[in-house]
Amino acid sequence: MKSIIRKIAALAAPSLAALMLFAAVASAHVTVAPAQSATGAWETYTLKVPSEKESATVRIDLRIPEGAEFKQYEPSPGWDVTIEGNKVSWIATGEGILAGQFQRFYFTAKNPDSAGDIAWNAYQHYADGSLVQWSGEEGSATPHSVTEIVQSTAGDSGHSHGAAAADDHGSMDMGGQGSMTMDEHNKIVEGMDNSSTSPLIYIAIGISLVAFLLAAISLLRGRKD
Question: What is the DSSP-derived secondary structure letter of residue 53?
Fold first, then answer.
């Protein structure tokens, strides 16, 4: 019995390792949060950029969706910002985002006046000259982030619903509903990023489980024979 368990474990190990690698790659997207905001609001968005290669990320270009208006950005040490029409670029003046690291960039945009989804196309440049275009549909290998713009209510002020701009004391104004620190805000944003995992992960999990079960059944049948 112990030998059978060892053989099953040996068969399962490569599949599980491949699954973990696939899940890590599939979930490490360039994202824009929050995933939902209100029509006409001045929203403070968070652009999260992970570096997925051995080469450093040295530039990120973000296209502002049609109907939205770029307003302001928060300076980030080690990065210059250029604005050309609907394209906002963060350009590294130092090493950039190294392998195994990620960085967040904050900016404010005015949402469209009409409800609907807006897509954030991003273009990630690496120091080795390669480019990753985060402009595909959901479920693709390189999907863009999508923010759902919902109709604002009569009581909305039209300013920064979910991730409002930080005040001079490092807290977030929540429109009369209290305040939160930047650390608390970042934890919420992190949760939003993690909730947008690609459906491909679940497909890979299902395939790996089926392969493992088939291998185990085959091994057990061979044992009986």
Answer: S
Query: Are the C-beta atoms of 144 and 121 separated by less than 8 Å?
Result: yes
Give yes or no for a contact between 88 and 105, defined as CB atoms under 8 angstroms apart.
no
Burial 2-19 (b: 16+ CB within 10 A, else e): eeeeebeeebbeebeeeb
Instruction: Indicate if the pLDDT at residue 175 is higher than 50.
Output: no
pLDDT at 75 over 60: yes
Strand, helix or coil at 205?
Answer: helix
Q: Which residue has the tokens 């290998």?
A: 141
Each residue's pLDDT tens digit, 15-74: 444 444 344 444 578 999 999 999 999 999 999 999 989 999 999 999 999 999 999 999
Give the tokens for residue 97. Answer: 């985002």
- Sequence-ordered alpha helix ranges (H) in 2-64: 2-27
Secondary structure (DSSP) of 144-197: PEEEEEEPPPTT--SB-SSSPPB-TTSEEE-SSS-EEEHHHHHHHHHHHHHTT-
pTM flag (> 0.70): no
Region of 133 on the Ramachandran plot (φ > 0 left; ψ -120 to 50 alpha; else beta) = beta
Take residue 131 and report the two structure tokens written for it.
Answer: 């480019």
Following DSSP, what letter does each residue of 92-119 receive, concatenated?
ESSS-B-TT-EEEEEEEEEPPSS-EEEE
